[in-house]
Amino acid sequence: MMHDTFPSDALVNLYGAEDAARCEAELRTLVSAMSGGQPNAKNRVSVWLLAYPAHLEDADLSGMQALNSLLDHTDDQFQHLHLLPPFRSGGDFGFAPADHFELESKAGTWNDLKALSHRRTLSIDLILNHVAPSHPWAEAVLAGKVDLDDEPFIRVDPHADYSALARSRHHPPVSAYGSVDGVRHYWTRYGHTQIDLDYRKPQVLIRMAKVLVEYAHRGVGGLRLDALAFLWKDASRSSANEPEVFHLLEVFRWIADRSGLTTLIAEGDVCAGVSPYVTPDARRASIAYRYESAPVVLSTLLRSSSAPLMKWIQDHGHQLHRTPALNFLSTHDGVYLRPYDPPVPPQDIDVLARATLDNGGAVIERVVNDAVLRYELDISIIDLLDGEGDGAERLAAGITLICWLPGTPMVYLGHLLGVRNDDELVRVTGDERARNRGSISLTEGLQRVRDGIGARVIEAVREFREVAAAYDAFDPASPIGVGPDLGDHVVSVTRTGANSSALCLLSLGKSRTVQIPAKYRPDGRDFVDLGPWESIVLHEIGSKRESAT
After folding, report:
1. pLDDT tens, residue by residue, 57-92
2. Contact yes or no for 385/394 (Cβ under 8 A)
3. 191 to 104, 401, 431: CA distances (angstroms)
4. How much is the pTM?
5. Residue 176: inside a domain, yes or no?
6. For residues 411 and 465, what is the distance between their CA atoms, to the nearest angstrom?
7. CATH number of the domain to which 185 belongs
């Protein structure tokens, strides 16, 4: 769905009528030669893969070539690839862009990148909030080649009061840089390696709009808007999710729709089925992250108890389908615990934290109003789940559970490859999140997707896609509910579409025989046997299959 009207009011609210009119004219000219994108017509069976270009190593192939080779052996089970930053960078695993278009040599070429999109939608990150000090924009500023009014950054007083800001990292919000006229201080929410852009100036919006349009011109199908919440800066406010952020988002959505993009992903939260980043009128993002899915499902797996998932669905299931959302076990940033509004009780956070520490991970904490909050778990998922030696089985079960949720499932490539904690990468980078970003050889990766842990993950995805293609109960917007109570060790959920209804059962850890409710007995069976971590989907009598596509 593409919204036809330019968001003129949004620009006026940002810049005033006169500057908004000039900005709108330039943006219209920018996209005038582009063709609008068409949303994916059949997205019910879409499963996403999230991957770094450096996840796989091969002496003769670039990172993207190696990734493409691996994808050739996944039986096309992933219809959307989100490729994490492949561009030349000043740090933060690609999220400190030193250039928006020059690729890291190890990652590969633009031809390699385009090849990744041949059989799937390809998304990359549009890093909107900042650039590296080595970026040409920053180098020109620090060399004195740019007038103060035209600087795309925010000069600040290092002694000012920044206590109102919502902080993302432990780094100070201000960094000092040497320049042609001495030391200057700039706004750096994420630290010294990333200088924040100043969207209070319309020319900054136009610069980043040009980057967006160029990505679309080069064949990218979707973009994730990185650090979206922090685009608008005001030291007297939190500078997180300010109203101006959503005005900017509406402008970027208008540009994306007219540039050939089919997907605009907000790095923002969908909580209990609600998100300010995604609206029914298609004026903002296409989809956002459901961060709460990770701690809920992982608690269920680690406890071998259906209680965390069943309680969450009981409380929020009536609205989880209302907003397009990505469900996952973790991302490249680990497991975000949503500390300000956790989706599971403190005792389940304790279980997650204890399992993380017991299996070589780190629990990142934040101090807010003198309270210590568990913020993030930095650990590979296979290490987190493998405490009893059945990590592969638990992982495959977790993939099944995120597939059953309303929305769209996303699998991190590290899960598919069964990559373990990389403590050496943590030591080298000084970043605890690096533990979840290790790499393996392409040869080993291919073995794992053929007959190892990757094969189990792919089979879980395949089973979901087959049933989702046949029954509209698994449409991303179909409601979910709690199924019949079959005991604490059996997940029992229902999905209901316009023409079908399904009962989804998963045994948590042990073999079980469960009784099937009468309306889900099309073949006359009264009971079904489930092995350890085994699942089954039963369709209500009278459910209609969808036409083959």
Report:
1. 999 999 999 999 999 999 999 999 999 999 999 999
2. yes
3. 22, 37, 13
4. 0.95
5. yes
6. 14
7. 3.90.400
